Amino acid sequence: MDLISLPGLTSLPALTHPELVAPRVAAALADWPAAAGLAVVEIDPDLADTAAMSAAYDLPLSAGVNCVLVAGKREGEERIAACLVRADTRADVNHTVKRLLDVRKPSFLPMERAVAESEMEYGGITPVGLPGGWRLLLDARVVDVEVAVIGSGLRRSKLLLPGSLLAELPGAEVVEGLAG
């Protein structure tokens, strides 16, 4: 399989460049058979936010896939989900995510907690290597992204992979209408 790439970015094999991903992400990549063709690209950490990166590197927003962490409670039990949506959409937290998690009031995980529990940097949180027990919800449109740009666990790099591979992550659930 050829290394995936995008114009303006230098692709390196993710498996042989663990210094460019968070330790938790490197461990997950090493255990994921589909990771062989994944690329990692170095970026300016000040451009880690999707809109800034898309503008600076002339990438369509539809290539960016954001990972947002949502939590809620039901009967004292907390439920957390990582929601993957294309950057040109927004997760439907108040309806679809609320229904899927079966919680009263879903909310975004506070930044400090998201960073601590994911063991990833804010602006680089990725679905690869998230804690067990968290649901992984993918908007169906993410699967159709030819080259998805996702976090690497660090602000200074991104992973490149076909969107269809995201559906192969452990526990991934493809959901129609997760984003609007």
Automatic annotation (TrEMBL):
Q: Which SUPFAM superfamilies match?
A: YbaK/ProRS associated domain
Record domain YbaK/aminoacyl-tRNA synthetase-associated: where? 45-164
Signal peptide limits = none
InterPro entries referenced in this protein's UniProt entry, alphabetically: YbaK/aa-tRNA-synt-asso_dom_sf, YbaK/aa-tRNA-synth-assoc-dom
- Spell out the coiled coil positions from the record: none
Origin: domain of life: Bacteria
Q: What is this protein called?
A: YbaK/aminoacyl-tRNA synthetase-associated domain-containing protein
- Source species: Nocardioides immobilis
